[in-house]
Amino acid sequence: MGSVLNVIKIGGNVIDDEDQLQSFLEKFAALQGKKILVHGGGKVATRTAADLGIEAKMIDGRRVTDAAMLDIVTMVYAGLTNKKIVSSLQKFGCDALGLSGADGDTIKAVKRPVREVDYGYVGDILVDSVNTLSIKKFLEAGFTPVFSAITHNGLGQLLNTNADTIASSLAVSLSKIYDTRLIYCFEKDGVLSDVNDDKSIIKTIKADDFELLKSSGVIYEGMIPKLENAFHAIGKGVKNVYIGNALNLHLYQQGEFGTCLLAK
Amino acid sequence: MGSVLNVIKIGGNVIDDEDQLQSFLEKFAALQGKKILVHGGGKVATRTAADLGIEAKMIDGRRVTDAAMLDIVTMVYAGLTNKKIVSSLQKFGCDALGLSGADGDTIKAVKRPVREVDYGYVGDILVDSVNTLSIKKFLEAGFTPVFSAITHNGLGQLLNTNADTIASSLAVSLSKIYDTRLIYCFEKDGVLSDVNDDKSIIKTIKADDFELLKSSGVIYEGMIPKLENAFHAIGKGVKNVYIGNALNLHLYQQGEFGTCLLAK
After folding, report:
1. One Pfam family name from the record (chains A, B) (predicted)?
2. Rounded CA gap, A235 and A189, in Å?
C-alpha cells in the first residue's frame, strides 16, 4: 500500500462564514502529507440566483438544476467559492489546484435519469467515474486538488453533483492507490451519544456497533444516511472515516478528531 | 531548445457566440503538440453584473474592478466561461485543465498601484510572475492548461488581469523552456494592408518593417498596441507571433494562418 491520503469534505455552513472558513483552511493547509479538499457551495448560489430573479427549486431536499441554475452553480461553486479557497490555501503555503470534474477529466458523471422527478442537470457518479490516473498525477506532482461539486459527462455537459458523494467516491477510488482516509467536517464535534450534550462524542464506531446504535435509537435520524455512506466507503476500501468539527481539524493528526468509523 | 509550445489567446467576441466558440475549440483541440489556451471574458460578465444591479465602470477602456465586480469576473471568467470551455475541449478529446493564476500558484500578480486612477482589484504581471515550473508539470503530464484572466497576489487576494497580457507573459516566460509561439485570435483574418479589404492580409511582418508600416500609416490605430506587444514578446524570446482569425486556426499547422510576426 502506498502513502497516506486524506480526503476532506467541508460543508456549506463553514463556507458561508468567512472567519470560520479562513480558520479551517489554515488548519487544512497545515495538515501533513497528501490531501484533497472537496467543498460544497453554501448559500451564495441560492442568494445569487435570487438576486438574478431565479428561484431555487428543491425536491426532497435536493436542488433541481435547470439550465439557468446550472450556470449559477458553475459560476459560484467552480468559480467564486473554489478560487477564493484556492487563493487562501496558497496564502497558507498549500499548493492548491482548483478542479471541477471536467478539469483533467477527473470526474465523469452521468445525467440522472428522469423517473418520477426530473432533477435536471444533476450528475450521478458511477463506479468508474473517478479518473485516478489523472488525480494521481496532480498528487505526485505536489499539488493539493480542491474539488468543487461540478462534474461533466465527457460530452461537453457540466453537471451539478453532490459534494458528499464526490468526497466518498474519490476516497473509494483512490484507496486502490493510497492508504486513504475520509474526513467529513460538519458543525458538530462528532457523533453524539446524547443529542442534547455536545460533549457526548462517541470516539469510535465499528460497523457491527452501528447496527446496534441505530436500532437502539442512539443515532438520530439526520446522522443515519451520513454514517451509512461512511460505512459503505469503508466496505469499499477506505481505511477509516472521521466525522467531526471543521474547526478542530488541527486535532486530527493527534488522533483527537471527532468520531472515527472503523470496519471492525 | 525543447519541444514546441503554442500559446493561444481567444477573445471575447468568439466566446460570446456559442457556434463560433465550439468551432474554434474543435480546431484548438485538433492542434498537435503542447498548447495553452488563454481566454478573455466576453460580455457575460457585464451582463451578469447588470442583472445583479452592479454597473460596469470603465476608465480609458479598462474595467474598474471593485470588490463586487471582482466577485462577478471570478464567477464568470474562472467559473462559467472556463468550465464550459474545458468541458467542450474534453468532448473534443483534449485533456484540458482550467486554471486561474491561483491554481498551482501559476501566475502571481501585484495589485496595480493607485496613481491618478484606482483600478481596484486589477493585477499587473511582473517579470517573474509566471511559475514556469508549475505549468511545465501540467504540460509534461499531458494536460492542456486553459487560463482565465484571474490571477492572485499570493496573499489570498484574487486579481482581475488582462488576458492579452497573460498570454504574452506566459509565452515569454515559457520560451525559456519551450520553442514558444504566441497566437492572437481575433475577428479579422490577419493584419491588413488595406483596412477596407479583408483579403489584403500581410503574410509576414519583420520588426524593421513594422516601424515603416507604422510611420507610413498602413497599420491602423487599434492594431498598433497589439503589434507592439507582439514584437515585445519576440524581443523577449518568443519565436514567432501570429495574428489571425479564430475560425481559421485549422490552417495554422499548414503555415497558412493570418499574419506572422518575425524578429528579422
Report:
1. AA_kinase
2. 24
How far apart (Å, rounded) are the C-alpha atoms in residues B207 and B181?
Answer: 16
Tens of pLDDT, residue by residue over B141-182, are: 999 999 999 999 999 999 999 999 999 999 999 999 999 999
Q: What are the grid coordinates assigned to B32, written together?
A: 498537435
Å between B158 CA and nearest CA of chain A:
7
Residues A157-170 as b/e (b if ≥16 CB within 10 A, e otherwise) read: bbbbbbbbbbbbbb
Closest CA to B238 of B260, B218, B257: B260
Structural domains of chain A ordered from first start: 4-262 (3.40.1160.10)
Q: Is the CB of A82 less than 8 angstroms away from the CB of B86?
A: no
Question: Which amino acid is residue B54, in one-letter code?
Answer: I
- C-alpha of A262 from chain center: 19
C-alpha cell at A174: 483512490
Contact B95 A105 (CB under 8 A): yes
φ, ψ for residue B137, nearest 5 deg: -60, -45
DSSP B201-221: B--EEEHHHHHHHHHTT-S-T
Note whether A126 and A110 are within 8 A (CB): yes
Contacts with A150 from chain B: Cβ below 8 Å: 83
| Max CA distance (Å), chain B | 51
Distances in Å between the Cα of B178 and the Cα atoms of A55, A87, A104, A192 are: 49, 28, 22, 57
CA distance A162 to chain B (A): 18
- Please enumerate, as own/partner, the contacts of A221-224 that have beta carbons within 8 Å and a separation of 24 or more: A223/A191
Q: Which three cell numbers stand for residue B140?
A: 509534461
Q: Contact at 8 Å (CB) between B40 and B15?
A: yes
